[in-house]
Amino acid sequence: MRKLTLLLLFSLSCILTALSTPNSAIWENEILIGVNDQNYYTIKTCRYLTGTYFHNIDSVFLIEREINTGKVIDRKVLRVIDHKDATTNGDWQHTEMIENPINLIEYQKDKKVELVFQSNYKNMKFKFSADGLLLLYRDSEELIENRAYVENYVDWFNEYLSYQEKYPNDFDFQIRISQTYESRTHKFFIVESGSDHTDSDFRQTVLVVHRDKLNAARQRINRRKN
Q: Helix, strand, or coil here: 151?
């Protein structure tokens, strides 16, 4: 009986440990800093949750991508910090892992990066579906860009689309637009999904849409209104 009691206590301890252990996950935040004629430039911060409360890693990247394809041209590591509590008693050690940070001001000058401004689209509604990016007006939907195009910019789109379809009423699983920016020729949508308040993934990236494509969808919507 004593052996059985000890075995049960050990099993319960393992279960409680498993329940209290967080999942490994990644939290991403991406900021658009500017564009030139061919490319756009973002700062992406990532926090890697390693599956324990006592170790995570923060990274910052400078990413250069082609405006017309979303292809990554260059990805520079700006900073990495390893956070570890080896004793699990709050004795955190923070280890800097990058020794030669680049000069962002000089980088922008060399690349001829033009800064961009946020734009206001509160009067417009968008939706992501299996078709791609849609513009909404009442009961009308107009396709702005198809699914294949969106996937070129949002590499996690397929995975999160399946979550959205499985949990249609859960905000955290919706693919949504949090901010918009604009240049003379393009619109830039900050696309995100997930939650950064839990030990699950939160993904964020930039989707580029030519102004002509958005305007064409708006014109089709207007014709339906009339």
A: helix
In this model, does residue 166 exceed pLDDT 50?
yes
Pairwise CA distance, residues 17 & 202, whole Å: 25
Could you list the beta-strand ranges (E) of the chain: 24-35, 39-50, 55-66, 72-84, 93-96, 117-118, 125-129, 132-137, 140-146, 176-182, 186-194, 202-210
pLDDT band at 134 (very low <50, low <70, confident <90, very high): very high
pLDDT score recorded for residue 99 = 66
**Tokens for 127?**
């939706």
pLDDT band, residue 41 (cuts 50/70/90): very high
Q: How far apart are CA 188 and CA 34, in angstroms?
A: 10
Torsional sign, CA 57, 67, 119, 221: negative
Tokens 């006592």, residue located: 54
Q: CB atoms < 10 A from the CB of 75, how many?
A: 11
**pTM for the model:** 0.83
Side-chain-side CA neighbours of 100 within 13 Å: the count stands at: 1
How confident is the model at residue 183, as a pLDDT?
A: 93
Task: Measure the CA–CA gap between 125 and 145, rounded to whole angstroms.
Answer: 15
